[in-house]
Specification:
seven-stranded mixed sheet, single chain, 7 strands, Maf protein, alpha/beta, 214 residues
Length: 214
């Protein structure tokens, strides 16, 4: 029997990435208040978290929120992405003005895109279930083109930058504005397939058992 996967994310890019790799997950969107989760964690830590830790924290929160529901599945995967620029963390812009301002800072420069992954094994013990939870963050250096003000304003007007972490995509309308990446391409899209394969291996699940779920 194929291994069943629930994706705890509303991201079309993450869903498309899995489908392109032969995996057909069920999508269940979490109701987590990301701002509250991060604030609580930083209060407990008595200070700001590292950008890579924030991505993993939010991925875990989404995953655990969905896994707590009444699901008929084997695994739940949560992901979250943030852009690190000048040591600051950036998720989705709040409005077009913020997206324009951010792109004016990003243009001609480089940032680090961090994507956190959290995986929970919900299989029964007699089905090989471990009850395990595993996670990891993948980070990729992204180089941005030196956009003109007109290009920035036109791109923001498409609405795409408001829907994605870091205010850009590499696999969509923002592709022409990314001049290069150093690391895993899928990390920038929002879900690293090599990282997911490794996490599955940690739970004793071969990658191909997911792929056969198509």
């Amino acid at each position: 029997m194929p291994t069943r996967l629930v994706l705890a994310s509303a991201s079309p890019a993450r869903l498309s990435t899995l489908r392109s790799a032969g995996v057909e997950p069920v999508v269940v969107i979490s109701t987590v208040d990301e701002t509250a989760v991060q604030a609580a964690a930083e209060t407990a830590a008595d200070g700001a978290l590292e950008p890579s830790d924030i991505a993993l924290l939010l991925a875990r929160a989404k995953c655990e929120d969905v896994a707590a529901g009444d699901l008929d599945t084997d695994l739940v995967l949560g992901c979250d992405s943030v852009l690190e620029l000048d040591g600051e963390v950036h998720g989705k812009p709040a409005d077009p003005a913020e997206a324009v301002s951010r792109w004016r800072r990003m243009r001609g420069r480089s940032g680090i895109l961090h994507t956190g992954h959290w995986l929970i094994d919900l299989r029964e013990a007699d089905e090989g279930g471990t009850g395990g939870t595993v996670g990891a963050t993948s980070s990729t250096l992204v180089h941005f083109a030196d956009l003109s003000d007109a290009e920035i304003e036109d791109y923001v007007a498409t609405g795409e930058p408001l829907r994605v972490a870091g205010a850009f995509t590499v696999d969509g309308l923002g592709g022409p504005y990314v001049t290069g990446i150093e690391g895993d391409f899928h990390t920038v899209v929002g879900l690293s397939l090599p990282v997911l394969r490794t996490l599955l291996g940690d739970l004793g699940i071969p990658w191909h058992t997911l792929r056969s779920a198509v």
